[in-house]
């Protein structure tokens, strides 16, 4: 019993698609950070996000190699990194929903500006929130959909790791039985 398919494809193919999806997400994340110009201003949060997108891209590459080699240790390592990535996006989604709720109740949206000793800022205040409202709603919907897809990928990789481990145990038992009857 168990899950042996990932929608219309096999579990392995679905996890490969998930790894490629993760790579595309990481590339788009870095591209958006570069296009926004936040990386050039010494924004510590943007630099940390860019570093984590690089880590997620590398983890997706490792996931592909783990799928091809059928090594569950690699898959479990990817699961830890991707779970942290998913939790960060859930927190970010909560922040955006909170900002949208503050905007709807005509409360001023407060963005903390923290300047470090070297003069770099951790965050910046937008000029006009009204012009960013469609972008905010689009971002909330996009991140929500991305979280759902990412959770589906995470569950698929967990099932694949369990499936690979179960097959290894079956092969080991069959080899033991062949040795006993020889």
Automatic annotation (TrEMBL):
Keyword entries, A-Z: Membrane, Transmembrane, Transmembrane helix
Keyword Membrane: yes
Sequence intervals crossing the membrane: 20-38, 44-64, 76-101, 135-162
Name this protein carries in UniProt: MARVEL domain-containing protein
